[in-house]
Amino acid sequence: MATVLRALSKFMPNLRGPGERRRRLYANVMTSVVMYAAPVWAGGFASAPDAVTRPWRRLQRAIAIRVIAAYRTVSYDAATLLARMPPWPLEAALRRRVFERLTELKTVATLVEKRTRRSGTGRGFCSLDSGKLT
């Protein structure tokens, strides 16, 4: 991760570098790389000790500082707030919830499809509130 950040940092010097739109693009690339497989590791990340989350916070802070073209003395909270970057643990938890909900909806859709095939009428109804076929 740090090597990718260093490579992107060459394109984004703090002084007289690219504009905010281009900086945000680089930040989104880094966030996409970090959030790969987030639904899998997000559960453990939320309850991880500070020693585990510190490198992630340091990396996100470095990216946010590049986006806002700030000095290195800016805190993590200030840098991520000014860069409009949600904290990665929150984003990972959100992606996990979305993944779980999509999996749940696919399961319900599969049940509906099986029921409509069995009935032969093509009229299967499902209550998505309860998740039960009616």
TrEMBL record:
Alphabetical UniProt keywords: Membrane, Nucleotidyltransferase, RNA-directed DNA polymerase, Transferase, Transmembrane, Transmembrane helix
Positions of transmembrane segments: 25-48
GO molecular function terms noted in the UniProt entry: RNA-directed DNA polymerase activity
Protein name: Reverse transcriptase
Provenance organism: Lasius niger
